[in-house]
Amino acid sequence: MIILLFKITGYFTLTENIAITRALKVVIRTAMTAWIFYLYHQVKTRNRVASFTKENTLAPFFYGLYLFMGFMSLLYSTNPGYSLLQLVMNIESFVFAWKYIQTFILARHCYSNHGFRLGRLTAPAIFMIQLAFIIGKYVAPDQFFRLTHGGEVARLGGYLMNPNELGMLAVVGIACCIMELVEGASRWKNLGMLLVILYALVLTGSRSSMIGFMLILFYFINKSDSAKLKMAVYVAGILAIPVIVQTIFIKQGDIEEVLSMTGRLPFWKALLTEGLPKEPWFGFGYMRIAYTEAFQSVHTYAGKMTHNTFIQVLMNLGFVGFFIVLLQMTFTIRAFTLSKNKTDKAYFTGLFIPILINSFTEFGIFGETNYGILFWQLLTWLFVFEYNPRLSLRERALQLEKRR
């Protein structure tokens, strides 16, 4: 839990000083990767076993191919230095996700009586982050609140994190709390964490995250056998719709802003009709969307990122990269459908829904480095490894030698 807590924290803008922030991000993230390698070694050594069978390997293979194409794009990137920085950070998190899942599977086997579940590790990590932001709301509102709509709307996040990204993280936390409640884990503890995270979600004022929350809620409720619970949630959801729409979706009564998705629709149209035709096959380079630092058009605002992870891939790596990404997602989802582990499948769903919705309007799972990418990388590796209790004769012989 602590490792995941600090790993996610490493994506926040912890100070307004850019140089210090970058240094902290590098130190925190690499330290957590080193820690997970150390933890894996410790579990492996203490239990003297570590053997995995591999399946569904096409999902990480195509993710690796996507990263390799990003590396090749350094040859033509409109800003090789920036592309390399983004690429290195995403490779580092991909390696972390690989070893994190291996460590989890190994620990789940060796300490099966401890109830190891990914939701149990993720929920408290996100709860502590959201609680820190809520406390910051009262202690240092200037740092933890971001003013939008001409200063009329205050949203939780401040300069530390984009409110929509913070909202997405909150929905992931809520999903993990619900999973734990379904598993019969400490009811009051998880319910308490859920309510605190839900409060933080409301404070972010994130429309996309609220949609994700409603989908998550209805998905898990539909899995319940209680007809009364289903009816109560549906009625409460219907009654809450007018309040949610008025307070979160229609800010300042601006319906046109909602219909244009805060100006994103004309921006996407300009990207696809004006920008993409210039470099249609291989794009402008990893995490680049134009020849200049920002895409500019007479029909919309200037932007450095697309606010849509799929359009981002199109602009970065063209149609070739987009096809690779579609294959990667297809094989990851296929691995999910083939799995028979209900707990892991619930975790996949709980993460997939909010990060996918976030991908349509923000950085997303293939955008500039963010913890949404980390979550997708975890899901990419989730169904690849299976613990193998039957060690080969050679492995047994090596273990005997070490014991002597």
Which helices and strands, and how do they pair?
Blueprint (H helix, E strand, L loop, with lengths): L1 H8 L8 H30 L4 E3 L3 H15 L7 H31 L7 H22 L1 H4 E4 L4 E4 L6 H20 L4 H18 L2 H16 L4 H23 L5 H5 L4 H12 L19 E3 L2 E4 L5 H30 L3 H18 L11 H12 L2 E3 L5 H11 L1
Helix pairs in contact: 1-2, 1-5, 2-4, 3-13, 4-15, 5-7, 5-8, 7-8, 7-9, 7-14, 9-10, 9-14, 14-15
Percentage of β-strand residues = 5-15%
Separation, N- and C-terminal Cα atoms: 35 Å
List how many beta strands DSSP finds. 6
Number of helices: 16
Assign the structural class, choosing from mainly alpha, mainly beta, alpha/beta, alpha+beta, or little secondary structure. mainly alpha
Enumerate the spans where pLDDT stays under 50 for 5 or more consecutive residues: none
| Biggest sheet, spatial arrangement of strands | 1-6
Helix content: 55-70%
Quick synopsis:
Helices cover 68% and strands 5% of the residues. With 404 residues, the protein is mainly alpha-helical. The mean pLDDT is 87.
